[in-house]
Design goal:
The protein is mainly alpha-helical and about 230 residues long. It has a single domain, classed as Gap junction channel protein cysteine-rich domain (de novo design (two linked rop proteins)). It is built from 6 helices and 3 strands, in the order ααβαααββα. Strand 2 and strand 3 form a beta hairpin. Helix 2 packs antiparallel against helix 4 and helix 4 packs antiparallel against helix 5. The longest helix is centred in the last third of the chain and has 46 residues. The chain starts with a helix and ends with a helix. Belongs to the connexin family. It is found in: Cell junction, Gap junction; Cell membrane. Keywords: Cell junction, Cell membrane, Gap junction, Membrane, Transmembrane, Transmembrane helix.
Length: about 230
């Protein structure tokens, strides 16, 4: 996948994000995407090749590897990064829709038309809901993947040795995982950064709702005074 083009698309999100959203985007790119591209992919590149079992029985090593690694960390992280950043693209698409609608009105009615969106990127109306729902979805995706990792890899750690007795293994065999300590360090790092992203999304959602409630209270207070 062309992650450079992916990053270029998401760079436009900064224009429509709050301060918390910009921090979230920085954490995703610097501490998740770059770590994934530069280091994590290489660490897991030899996971199947160097998964050794003390048996010569054909098929035993493959069956044991499939049992203990039902889905690779790398593929799960790639899917997680794609899903967690797609809602930000929806915000850009919503702003582009507003700008295109404004342009069509300008071309149809001339310069004296009634402006629908004085600032298409301002989070009001439908765009506010799109932005808020995108934050909830991103936090939900990260929480779901944290649960998936926990279920597949207990406590997010890999043991140095695992025992396997699945057919066609002739008996209980010992299997050894390649570089388990290094993989555990990267796994814990990715889990921590994911938790930080969840907290940032929830803080930003709370900020948006609180700001909107404050504006509504001010508007109501102004109407009552009049």
């Amino acid at each position: 996948m062309n992650w450079g083009a992916f990053e270029g698309l998401l760079s436009g999100v900064n224009k429509y994000s709050t301060a918390f959203g910009r921090i979230w985007l920085s954490v995703v790119f610097i501490f998740r995407l770059l770590v994934y591209l530069v280091a994590a992919e290489k660490v897991w590149s030899d996971d199947h090749k160097d998964f050794d079992c003390n048996t010569l029985q054909p098929g035993c090593t493959n069956v044991c590897f499939d049992h203990f690694f039902p889905v690779s960390h790398i593929r799960l992280w790639a899917l997680q990064l794609i899903l967690v950043t797609c809602p930000s693209l929806l915000v850009i698409m919503h702003v582009a829709y507003r700008e295109a609608r404004e342009q069509r009105l300008r071309e149809t009615k001339g310069d004296n038309y009634r402006c629908l969106y004085p600032d298409p990127g301002k989070k009001r109306g439908g765009l506010w809901w799109t932005y808020l729902l995108s934050l909830i979805f991103k936090a939900g995706v990260d929480v779901v993947f944290l649960y998936i990792f926990f279920r597949f890899y207990k406590n997010y750690t890999l043991p140095r040795r695992v025992k396997c007795e699945l057919p066609p293994c002739p008996n209980v065999v010992d299997c050894f995982i390649s570089r388990p300590t290094e993989k555990n360090i990267f796994t814990v790092f990715m889990v921590v950064t994911t938790c930080i992203c969840v907290v940032l999304n929830l803080i930003e959602a709370t900020y948006l709702v609180g700001k909107r409630c404050h504006e509504c209270q001010q508007a109501g207070g102004g109407d009552s005074r009049r």
